[in-house]
Amino acid sequence: MELTTFWFAVIAFLWTGYFVLEGFDFGVGMLAPALARNEAERKQVLGTIGPVWDGNEVWLITAVGAMFAAFPAWYAGMLSEFYLPIVLVLVGLIVRGVGLEWRGKVRHASDRAWCDLGVLVGSALPAFLWGAVFADLLRGSATAALVGGVFSLSVCVLHGAVFVALKTTGPVRARARRAAMIASVPALPAAVAALSHIPVAGTAAVAWSASPWLWAGALASMAALAAGVALTWRGREGWAFAATASSIALGSAALFGGLWPAPFPGLTVAEAASGPYTLGVLTWIGLIALPFVLGYQAWSYWVFRRRLVAEVS
Question: What element of type H or E holds 34?
Fold first, then answer.
């Protein structure tokens, strides 16, 4: 395998990990006001992501850093073309981080309400904008961007609801299961609409038409999403979360498959890549560091695997 192909696959893997892990973070942040009836339940809901949300953002930092080092022309083109939405994503992530950190330190209910609003807005903005950016990058139209944004937003809400149902007990768990059912109403049609916007002309069309398994991946993503809804309805939250996570991962794989071999209009992977020496050094760094990062994050999820109970005040 050529190093350019290897690093494109690594970057696709990093973005996929980010979409899967931050996807439920965003969903929990958006759903917290609807799932909690009091402060104890609000802490229970946000506590599901409390130990992991900042670690999940490392996937974004690593993905963007890898793009900068391995494919500087792709990095420069994407950040220049989508400057405003990416700035808004960063603003949302900052506001969400401030809200999550400060709400446990402020003393007045009105201050906590502002923090909760920051968490909601700071979760919704990236959830919508990342879908819009990558859909526009793949298809290159405002309609596709809107469809992609609605799709990613609705799937994050569904993914987050399933995660809360998996990680909580009592009334919050029951509400989260109902929220997942409600979230499926826009999420499943949005998935069909997103599939209908698969490129049929332009740069990415060659990749799609020449690789039927990409269509199979997109269809499998939709099937996994539907399975997640059915499993949630049956109370099998663990399998439901695996299904929604698989749906996002399969959709991301289809996305990056559609971007190969031209991840940016008029720019192929070979043209966007750094020199062989740089890619070689990056490969050694990645092979040494990545297993430790993955191992640590897996360990952290194992440590905080238990369901959370609302504190009795």
Answer: helix 3-35
Pairwise CA distance, residues 283 & 54, whole Å: 26
- Sequence letter at residue 8: F
Give the C-alpha separation, 156 to 309, whole Å.
23
Backbone angles phi, psi at 262, to 5 degrees: -125, 90
Q: Are 12 and 253 within 8 A, CB to CB? A: yes
CA distance 58 to 213: 30
184: amino acid identity, one letter: S
∠263-269-270 over CA atoms, to 5°? 160
Contact between residue 223 and residue 205 where contact means Cβ atoms under 8 Å apart:
no
Alpha helix stretches (DSSP H) within 211-272: 212-233, 237-259, 269-272
CB 224 within 8 A of CB 243: yes
CA distance 161 to 68: 34
What whole-number distance in Å separates Cα of residue 106 and Cα of residue 56? Answer: 25
pLDDT in tens, 248-302: 999 898 888 888 888 888 888 888 888 888 889 988 888 888 888 888 888 888 8
Distance between CA atoms of residues 178 and 197, nearest Å: 30
This prediction's pTM: 0.89
Summarised one tens digit per residue, pLDDT across range 159-192 is: 999 999 999 988 999 999 999 999 998 888 888 8
